[in-house]
Amino acid sequence: MVKEILLACVGKPSAGKSSFLNAVSDATAKVGNYPFTTIKPNYGVSYVPVECPCKKYGKESQCKPRYGRCVEGTRFVPIQMMDVAGLVPGASSGLGLGNIFLDDLRHANALVHVVDVSGTTDQNGKETAGYDPINDINWLRLEIHSWITNNLLKRWTSIVRRHVATKNNIVDTLQTQFSGYGSVASVVQKAMDKSGIKTPLETWDEETVKKVVDHFMDVRFPTIVALNKIDMPDSDKNITKIMRKYDQNKLVLTSALAENFLRKVRKQNYIKYIDGTDIVETKEDLPDSDLKPMDDKLKNRVEKVQDLVLFRYGSTGVQEVLGKAIELLGVTPVYPVKNVTTFGSPNSSKPGAFRDCILVWPGTTVREFAKILHAEIDKYYLYAETVGNIRLSEEAVICHSNNVICYKTAMAITSKISLGNDASSSNTPDNNNNSKKGKK
């Protein structure tokens, strides 16, 4: 069983979550400068950039992705995205649309926290001027923390009583409580390892419970912060303060509106724009191309986006957010091929190299990946090999050094192996099933 990666755009109302979703996906989420534009979650398919082996092995011209695309050795692999109802102070107590937001959140593998760094919306998402967004990052985390902690503390006495009566270990007891947040035992184990807590569960006080929840959140809800609206007048001073206070490795400067604008103009064939870069070319730059000439008004708008965003920051930042989120999850792109010389697809009816790319969780073994690809590959498995005809152990963990894999079976697989139905859309092992240690 497999499950697609799902990233959730979260944050206060009017921070730009829906605009961000539209900027990185095929969604057409409703946007507006008033609170609670989003009531029900909006979903879309995004394309996360990963390194494609076609460039390393000189197969760029033959690289034919079944899903997504490949641009000069950068593979854009599909993943699922959603944005959920905006969070307001007190959401963990049910204020605003808090209960709706938090219930939606449990389906996500990682969070993209969209913060309005311009200071033009207050903590409730209402239009204002001069608001200081420096505390918005911790505020969202505290609401999620309170949601989980309060749910635990309300029934803590019965949890302890049942734990003592059943003589379960701590991980099993906590997993029973955390399963409602999309957790598995390995996530709880990792959180306990990070916490360093060795005392019996029946001796824990409220502060110990809060500490456990803190580490559980780090593992279960890894978060990238998108500092959005960087092209607004007051953004610079707010960015400087936030960069000094928080971990810069998890902060990305973004302009979702600029990305949406560039994508729209590209679709209308006025510009050639490469996602994740500052490269924008027009008819003036490429006179022999089929690009349409722009009038002065459109030309000025494009130049303004270049000056305020692309030339200052190198890109609109939205692709970098996706890349960092996938990096936090630790997933590995895997390329199943028919053989390790031509790199053709296991589905020989469609030619082309590296047609399929599947993102798998940390700790996935060669044999487990065979089962993900197709039940008959697992059933008739003989061995697997990677580039250079190097045989791989069944228990070898898939990593970037062995992620081009060819499977050999004991008999010809007569049924067509159509990865598109279950694996090639960046699917990963099901988070809801018990998995081996090391997986999420």
UniProtKB/TrEMBL annotation:
PANTHER family: OBG GTPASE FAMILY (PTHR23305), OBG-TYPE G DOMAIN-CONTAINING PROTEIN (PTHR23305:SF1)
Keyword Transcription regulation: no
Name this polypeptide is given: P-loop containing nucleoside triphosphate hydrolase protein
Keywords: GTP-binding, Hydrolase, Nucleotide-binding
One function term, GO molecular function aspect: GTP binding
GO cellular component: cytoplasm
Domain OBG-type G: 5-274
Region of interest (Disordered), ranges: 421-440
Any Pfam family matching the protein: YGR210-like_G4
InterPro entries for the chain: Beta-grasp_dom_sf, G_OBG, GTP-bd, P-loop_NTPase, TGS-like, YGR210-like_G4
The keyword Electron transport is annotated on this UniProt entry: no
Taxonomic source organism: Phascolomyces articulosus
